[in-house]
Amino acid sequence: MTTIPQSFARALSVPLRPSSPDISCSAPLCPHIPDVRPEAEARGSAQMWVLVIIAGIGVVTLLLLLFAPHIRRYAAGAACRTASRLDGKTVLITGANTGIGKETALDLALRGARVIMACRDTEKGEEAAASIRAECPKAQVEVRELDLADTCSIRAFAQKFLREVHQLHILINNAGVMMCPYTKTVDGFEMHMGVNHLGHFLLTYLLVGLLKRSAPARIVVVSSLAHNFGWIRFHDLHSQGSYNSGLAYCQSKLANVLFARELARRLNGTDVTVNSVHPGTVNSDLTRHSTIMTILFSVFSVFLKTPREGAQTSIYCATAEELHSISGKHFSDCSPAFVAPQGRSSETARKLWDVSCEQLGIEWD
Fold first, then answer.
1. Which residue ranges does UniProt annotate as crossing the membrane (predicted)?
2. Predicted pLDDT of residue 329
3. Is 219 in contact with 273 (CB distance < 8 Å)?
4. How far apart are CA 71 and CA 67, in angstroms?
5. Cβ–Cβ under 8 Å, residues 264 and 274
6. Which stretches in the chain have pLDDT values below 50?
7. Are 227 and 196 a contacting pair, CB within 8 Å?
8. Is the torsion defined by CA of 101, 274, 320, 337 positive or negative?
């Protein structure tokens, strides 16, 4: 048979049979080239999500900048509009060296009251008093030492106070601790319950006689919206079995509400009123014991009240003429506020009263 030359076959477009591969060789004809498409797609997807997140942060930031004035007005809440003067009145505020306590002291001093600032740290108290005098040269402010984590300090404070001060028209139980590590007071109470509730309970007990003699008089108890999440754990009031700083704080704030309501009931007819307040979510150093809360409060400060804004409801309950006969209520943003069901329980309030008296070694009927 005649063989067709390859050049002639190409000219006639006649395909030639390719040579058969050497099946005896196990190696591939060409090296393996990995498919890089999945890796490239993954990198592209990750980059896309990064861009989406950056764009989202940018949009949120832009919206915050655009609506910041409106957000601030909403976050600020209501302001106390009463112009009541307090000339000749004596006011005692615990924890008045910082935060809403200091702002409350400033406002009431501007109204002509003699303001006694009860502080654990008297050095910081004097600094706060000096700043109030700088803003109001005629302010009658004085600092006295009071450690609510020590019943001996509370009794010594009250003894000296009763000896030197002859009238008390407004008592504002403002001081407090929040979400601190598990620690005990000098008397062995869990810190939240010891300072926020029992310390103020004892102080009020020691001064209530003077308040009655100075009537009309008012007691303002600073509580919190956190009372909604609290329960009085009578079986473990001082968290010896288990401890959660957030729940301990909520329990103490519920105790504030229950104390105010029960005290108001017991003082009915004495012309001494008692109300509790929620100051709002305030950007203050109260969160100093919680790193997470401190960071969150710093990041979202535009949504929080300033100490001056947070003080408005305390000022309102201390000065508003329309509240002269209102007692046993809870306020927020200078208006009556919701109280959780556990905060409205008369049975729980009476039981907490009895337990508090027992733990403090007092009889208060």
1. 48-68
2. 98
3. yes
4. 6
5. yes
6. 1-2, 4, 7-9, 11-21, 23-27, 29-30
7. no
8. positive
E strands, 167-252, where? 170-173, 217-222
Distance separating alpha carbons of residues 275 and 329, to the nearest angstrom: 5
Give, in order, the Cα–Cα distances in Å from 42 to each of 35, 36, 47, 322: 13, 10, 9, 67
342: Cα within 13 Å, side-chain hemisphere: 17
Torsion over CA: 84, 317, 96, 77 (sign): negative
Residue with tokens 């909604």: 228
Task: Dig out the tokens for 197 from the structure.
Answer: 């509730």
For residues 112 and 211, give the distance between their C-alpha atoms in angstroms, rounded to a whole number: 19
Could you report the per-residue pLDDT of 214-230, keeping only the tens digit for each? 999 999 999 999 999 99
End-to-end Cα, the chain, rounded Å: 131
Tokens of residue 71, six digits: 């957000």
pLDDT of residue 97: 95
Our CA dihedral for 323, 329, 333, 339, rounded to 10 degrees, sits at: -170
pLDDT of 47 reads 74
Phi, psi at residue 92, to the nearest 5°?
-120, 125
pLDDT at 40 (0 to 100) = 64
Tokens 């058969």 label which residue? 20
Tokens 């005649």 label which residue? 2
Instruction: Answer whether 137's CB lies under 8 Å from 205's CB.
Output: no
Helix (H) or strand (E) holding 119: strand 114-119
d(CA 195, CA 198): 6
Q: What is the pLDDT of residue 11?
A: 45
pLDDT at 304: 84
What's the pLDDT score for residue 339? 98
CA–CA separation, 286 and 302 (whole Å): 17
DSSP 36: -
Tell me whether residue 249 is one of the annotated catalytic residues. yes
What pLDDT score was predicted for residue 150? Answer: 98
Strands 140-145 and 272-278: unpaired
How far are the Cα atoms of 81, 132, 249, 309, 318 from residue 107, in angstroms, in the given order? 12, 9, 28, 11, 11
Q: Which of 182, 243, 249, 316 is catalytic?
A: 249
Q: DSSP character for 305?
A: B
The per-residue pLDDT for 8 is 43
For residue 119, report the phi and psi dihedrals to the nearest 5 degrees.
-135, 145
